[in-house]
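seq as requested:
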Amino acid sequence: MKQEIVQQKSVVLDAKDRLMGRFASQVAKRLLNGEKVSVVNAEYLFMSGHPKSIILDYKQKLALKDKANPEHSPYHSRRADLFVKRVIRGMLPFKKPRGKSAYKNLRVYIGTPEELKISKAEKIETKSPRQVFEDTIYIKDLVEKLGYNKG
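struct tokens:
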């Protein structure tokens, strides 16, 4: 009985100036195909829509608490890399073994770490902020408005 060692292809994706939903769906597809994906510059992804309404929607989501025991309430991260990682997780069949193993192959970074500066980062083609007709908000600005401070 031979065990096959499957080599996973590792890829670094640059998220700078990319539309978050389209970018996340492409990353999820690559993860499900068995690639190891590292996303750099996660704070420079953007969402389309009016910034005030996006911020208001996320603040309402953060305000949801279990009245009986607030510790049992859902936790929503305010850090940009974890915020993006959660969006990508939502596009995976996370509760099934295939989705869990794909999610383990995902790394998301704020900025570009030293060990990944050596490798060339790919750009996924999505719309740029100038091509979107609506207003946009960067993830960096959104998480700052939700209460994340770097200090």
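The chain has one domain: 10-145.
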